Amino acid sequence: MSDHTKLSAALFDRASAVTPGGVNSPVRAFRAVGGVPRFMASGDGCHITDVDGNTYVDLVCSWGPMLLGHAHPEVTAAVQAAVGRGTSYGTPTQPEVELGEEIVARTPVDKVRLVSSGTEATMSALRLARGATGRAKIVKFAGCYHGHVDALLAQAGSGVITLGIPGTPGVTEATTADTIVLPYNDQAAVTQAFAQYGDQIAAVITEASPGNMGVVPPVGHFNDFLARTCKDNGALFISDEVMTGFRITRSGFWGLGSDTVAPDLMTFGKVMGGGFPAAAFGGRADLMAQLAPEGSVYQAGTLSGNPVATTAGLTTLRLATDEVYAQLDRTAETIRRIVGMALSRAGVPYRTQNAGNLFSFFFVESSDEVTRRITDFAGAGAQVLPRYAAFFHAMLDNGVYLPPSAFEAWFVSAAVDDDALATIEKAASVAARAAAA
Ligand code: PLP
């Protein structure tokens, strides 16, 4: 056992004795890249420090939420004050009203309902869509992740249009029988699905710009196409901005302005909780009015709108000004450039794709593929995965914490400074050589 991971390894052993795989969410176990998962002890700005005392520039940011960096003084002070006042009442509170107002002001939704996780947000949005339309089927896209909602843990079969087959044991065929899984960015497949099942489809759900198969943005105004197709067929369009919301722009992917047709429903999470469990779904007022207690579609939560979580989220959003987003864009561009240059120097064929400041690298097979845009899950899957594992570990050993899987987006925080960029540049040149080997 290596000395610099001794304490993480010991904790991993203890964790494995009481928790399946030693982790509370699978990707944390490093299975895709191998090695000992690092147990973090603290974070400060753009850095995280593990229990062995190793410090890393953090390009995961808790899978998105830590937009301003770790332990931001103003967020910390607001949270400490909120905790001091009391942590949960199961009654309405002022911070949740203010967070709702902030979300409505930043996005095209008329009303929001707060929940505690992105999974709950998408699950509740689907229920509302089914309740509102009186229809059962939903369309999702291969490679889009919407949390571990049973009906959305479906994999496509072999045809272009396939009714979902359960993507994991424990999800029954009956549960996914109403889930239609289509290839992402494939307008013809969507048209065909509506031709076949049009009057049964309650909703189409998609990540506004997928980040869970690496970053694979929509092409050909795919979101507008989906929104219009839904409208023409009496279905609802659900845009999942759990990852992109309040990260890419003040509102999310929507704020880039490339989409023009407002979704019927949207889901949010991650950044809006400022590092605490808070998420939301929202949309058109007439649809949201169908939720209990105003309407009859039931949805609830003991800790929904929790005052500490909403204070953290609200403080984060209020600090996330246009200048912060401009800085995030610059930082993301710089990292893409310096990592790209290192890979080119080492002769590693790669593609990098982005949606605003959200980006990822794909280690492609050959230089022919470098210019070929990756538009769907099949394209994202054709990567040289061992290269990513080698790259990841060399970055880690040189002080940069990347997502421990090739299929994830890289997340920057506003706390990344010139020193951190220098660390990334130095690490990338070693890591690129490791990936080339
Ligand atoms: N939707 C998207 C687009 C996500 O990226 C995620 C999580 O990564 C979720 C939903 C689920 O969110 P949570 O992990 O908070 O349940």
From TrEMBL:
SUPFAM superfamilies, per database record: PLP-dependent transferases
Catalytic activity, EC: 5.4.3.8
Key word Cytoplasm present: yes
Uppermost EC category: isomerase
Location(s), subcellular: Cytoplasm
A Pfam family matched in the record: Aminotran_3
Residues recorded as bearing N6-(pyridoxal phosphate)lysine in the entry: 270
Substrates-to-products reaction catalysed: (S)-4-amino-5-oxopentanoate = 5-aminolevulinate
GO biological process, one term: protoporphyrinogen IX biosynthetic process
CDD domains cross-referenced by the UniProt entry: OAT_like
Cofactor dependence: pyridoxal 5'-phosphate
InterPro entries hit by this protein: 4pyrrol_synth_GluAld_NH2Trfase, Aminotrans_3, Aminotrans_3_PPA_site, PyrdxlP-dep_Trfase, PyrdxlP-dep_Trfase_major, PyrdxlP-dep_Trfase_small
Keywords: Cytoplasm, Isomerase, Porphyrin biosynthesis, Pyridoxal phosphate
GO MF assignments: glutamate-1-semialdehyde 2,1-aminomutase activity; pyridoxal phosphate binding; transaminase activity
Pathway: Porphyrin-containing compound metabolism; protoporphyrin-IX biosynthesis; 5-aminolevulinate from L-glutamyl-tRNA(Glu): step 2/2
Gene Ontology CC terms: cytoplasm
Family: Belongs to the class-III pyridoxal-phosphate-dependent aminotransferase family. HemL subfamily.
Quaternary structure, from the entry: Homodimer.
Protein name, UniProt field: Glutamate-1-semialdehyde 2,1-aminomutase
Provenance organism: Kribbella italica
Gene name, Swiss-Prot/TrEMBL: hemL
